[in-house]
Amino acid sequence: MNAGTNPRPYSLLGYMADNLRARGKNPLAVYPLFISAWGVFFLFWLILTPFPGLSPQGMAVLGIVCWACVMWVSEAMPVGVTGLSIPTLLLLTRALPWVNNRPPMDKVFAGFTNHVVWLCLFAFLLSAIMQLLRLDKRIALGILAKLKASSVGRIIWGMFVVNIILGFLVPAANARAATLMPVVQGITNLMGDTPEEREAKKAIVIQTMVYGAMICGVFIMTAHLPNMVLIGIFDGNGFSNLNFLNWAMLQFPYLGMFALTQIWVRRHFKTGGMGIAGGASAVIRQYNELGPMSLAEKCLLCLFAALGVLFMTGKGSFIYELHSLQLGVIALLGMLILFVPGLLPCTWRQVQEKTIWGTFLLLGGAMTLTTAMTDSGLAGWLAGHIHAGVVGMSWWQALLALMVGTHIIRLGMLSNIAAVSMLAPIVFSMAPKLGLHPVAFTLLVCDTDTFAYILPTQITAAVIAYGTNTFSTTDYARVGWVCVLIAMAYGICVMAPWYAFLGLPVWDPAAPWPF
């Protein structure tokens, strides 16, 4: 710098931009979307006159929905902060009616007081402790060792069994994908670098970390967070008593879809009969290196087994109705036991560092938003407009149209929770207008959102799998679009008849609730 020259002043915007770059984000991508989110929010809340048939409160909620969508898609703000901000915006806009000049705090924070949110928090804490004890790795390697997985097909099926078992213990598909990532990479590292072996690696990673995680997530209540959103909506509209067993019974046939996707993936990547040299022995060696199961691991498994009995024998259980406690209450009881002094060798600091608090806040905010969409009339208003496009169609045509529309919308959204939070209240409100059963119709449409397999950026688990550098986005899309078609056909041809068999025919809105 020349003598006498004043240094260039460091602006606030420059300081903020540098902070973003240090976090690995591009300011030119983040700031336009951040500003757009707030612009759309104020546009609907304060500038535009209410649309015909929509109240000012509904317009405010529509602004919050659009704001949340942009924030969730762009991740301009952390997703958990976005979730926590939804009640704040509902209070500021008075989008929900105040009573005696006092805000309806019970509705504003409805998502954070719903019992299923506390069920998820317990699952997050349990998952964190499992990782600290390495019990998750023991389960995965133990199953693969028992199956003597030495071929691509055996590996994939073995990892599907792992996914199912971990689904009861590790909530959220992204958490399971992260748990399984080192195990999967350890297996693929045993393979060479021939064109055939590279294709086999793609099949293993995509089928186990993405398809397996998502399919078993639909089956297990706490293994997929959008399940919690759906249960919250059903429970709030008189369709209650969906415990672990009842949910599993409803969704059980989805496990069969894994076989269909496996047939296609095996054909696409040409992995039939391909073996992995030293695969079984390497897995057994890694399993043996873990040593015998510790007392802490045994305590954790015993606690989960005891709570599992309570989860499965609550109100509405078709096995035995032992009590009437809600799932969230049982989960809170489990938290009390988890932290009995000296029971487990984990400090609170260690546990909280591995707990996905952002997702917990995201789930609470998303469930609050679904309540606000219903109470403000926005869900019914949107359902009426979408209804105009499918009126006159048969049940399966309307279902297919909404499935296709869902996959188009999902091309730009990463979060399953965010997508289902926007979609579920609308679909649930639309069902009576179409003369369809609201629960069956909502399940069929929203479950297809889980199988968004066109781009890796549509599912967090796929983003984690993409991080292995095993496959390209082109590889993913080429195999994925067929799996999307399989999922839609499976919903119409398998799941709809199954729901009817259980007493929930999608074509009969008056069918009594069987649980």
Can you give me a brief rundown of this structure?
This protein is mainly α and about 525 residues long. The chain is built from 25 helices and no strands.
- Major sheet: none
Order of helices and strands: HHHHHHHHHHHHHHHHHHHHHHHHH
Number of H- or I-type helical stretches: 25
Spatial separation of the terminal alpha carbons: 77 Å
Total count of domains: 2
Percent strand equals: under 5%
* 3D shape: globular
Return Rg in Å: 24 Å
Structural class: mainly alpha
Number of strand elements: 0
Helix residue percentage: over 70%
Uncertain runs: none
Brief descriptors of the model:
2 domains, mainly alpha, 515 residues, globular
What do you see in this structure?
Helix content is 70%, strand content 0%. It has 515 residues and is mainly α. It is globular, with a radius of gyration of 24 Å.
Explain the layout of strands and helices.
Blueprint: H1 12-22, H2 27-47, H3 56-74, H4 79-93, H5 105-108, H6 110-113, H7 115-133, H8 135-147, H9 152-169, H10 173-188, H11 195-219, H12 225-236, H13 244-251, H14 257-269, H15 279-289, H16 295-312, H17 327-338, H18 348-354, H19 357-375, H20 378-390, H21 395-409, H22 416-434, H23 438-450, H24 460-466, H25 473-501
Helix pairs in contact: 2-3, 3-4, 4-19, 7-17, 7-18, 7-19, 8-9, 8-15, 9-11, 10-11, 10-24, 11-14, 11-24, 12-19, 12-22, 14-25, 16-17, 19-22, 20-22, 21-23, 22-23, 23-25
